[in-house]
Amino acid sequence: MSIIRTSVTTENILSVSQYLQIVNAVLREHVPSQEIVVEGEISGFTIKDGKWIIFDLKDENDPKAKVACFATTFKVTGVFENGMRARVFGYPAVKPWSTFQIDVQTMEPVGEGALKRAYEMLKKKLEAEGLFDQARKRGLPKFPDRIGLITSRDAAAYGDFLRILNNRWSGVEVLFAHVRVQGKEAVPEILAAFDAFNAMGEDERPDVLVLTRGGGSLEDLHAFNDEQVARAVYGSRIPVVVGVGHERDESLCDYVADIRASTPSNAAERVVPNRRDVESEVSMMARRVMDQMDSMLAERGLVVARATRAVGFLLDRERQRLAVATSRLTDGFSSWHTRIRDRVTGAERVLKQIDPKRVLSRGYAIVTSGGRVLSDASSIEVGGEIAVQLGRGAFDAEVLRKNGSGKQKLI
């Protein structure tokens, strides 16, 4: 075997940064484009400044074998601790501080023990934050027009939900969001479905959301125990019903949901009424209303009868009062008429007595000058013209002389 030593020149001397770039380029070239998945036991788990997650992943079969892992709290949610077995999804990289590590994109606990421990720890955390409080839970509309369904079309839960829904209250509109309900893609797909429904306009948005799937192990239900999904249920603007598998299955989403359904079929029962029950209730209400109306009419009939008798009594009394008043008015009018007639007759006699024509008929005359009645000879001069009104006829004259008190006479 021959060894060839190349000469060292300034051209082939690398800086540390250049060396790391080459190593990382080689890693990217030879590692599959998709994420690698590494499973092991967590040790040295630390969260720095509330956002950087640093830990080692150890091989349980080789205590010396371990790999450093780096993540952020933005990408990794849930509760993890030392000794817990976890599955890490990420990309290999060599960092400037000479550490070969995995850049973690997401991670999940593995095994019933680890899953159970993570479940209990996260449950306590969310409960302490108030996500399970009953006071914040909302009721559902009695007759929803539109339902948003989040599940897998391949799951039995999908068929069970729609079958029960149509049997109970057919005709309601269902907006379906197909998602995977387990596996690595389940969480982001469920989150995307919640975002899509909540982003809809008021006229398009469902009245209620249903998140459902069949039963399974803790590992199968991992997406429904994910912190991000639980917070999406909590933060939904639309009331959420969660129905998982069988009655024995309880996910964190069940605790956060506005309504927990024991199964997918029960979820359908919780969101719509039974048409037969509604029809029976309406019929019962109609009978109750008719009975109340009959009772009311009978009661009103008695009131009307009493009122009719009372009105008859009042009418009789008023008729009597009217007859008395009419009699008094007639008598009073007759008396008044007699008095007026007598007064008119007396006035006629007086008028006849003082009627100037009647006086003239007895030989008297009315003498006027210039339209003025003359009662004194001194008020007219000799030569003045006068008008004389007799009982029958009249004539004009001229004053020739007046007499009386040595004055001239009238001719």
Task: Please describe what this structure looks like.
- With 411 residues, this protein is an alpha/beta fold.
- It folds into 4 domains: 10-110, Nucleic acid-binding proteins (OB fold (Dihydrolipoamide Acetyltransferase, E2P), Beta Barrel), CATH 2.40.50; 134-273, Rossmann fold; 275-319; 356-411, no CATH class.
- The protein is built from 9 helices and 14 strands.
- The strands form 3 sheets. It has a 5-stranded mixed barrel.
- β2 (52-59) and β3 form a beta hairpin.
Structural features:
411 residues; OB fold (Dihydrolipoamide Acetyltransferase, E2P); 4 domains; five-stranded mixed β-barrel
Strand content: 15-25%
**Structural classification:** alpha/beta
Mass-distribution shape: elongated
**With helices defined by DSSP (H or I, 4 residues minimum), what is the helix count?**
9
Roughly how many Å apart are the termini?
195 Å
Largest sheet: 5 strands, mixed, barrel
Q: According to CATH, what is the topology of the largest domain?
A: Rossmann fold
CATH architecture of the largest domain: 3-Layer(aba) Sandwich
Largest sheet: spatial strand order = 1-2-3-5-4
- Total individual domains: 4
Mean pLDDT: 85
CATH class of the largest domain: Alpha Beta
What letter string, H or E per element, gives the SSE order?
Answer: HEEEEEHEHEHEHEHEHHHEEEE
How helical, in percent, are the residues?
40-55%
Work out the oligomeric state of the chains in this entry: single chain
Radius of gyration (CA) equals 59 Å
Low-confidence stretches: 406-411
Can you say what the CATH homologous superfamily of the largest domain is?
A: Cobalamin-binding domain
Count of DSSP strands: 14
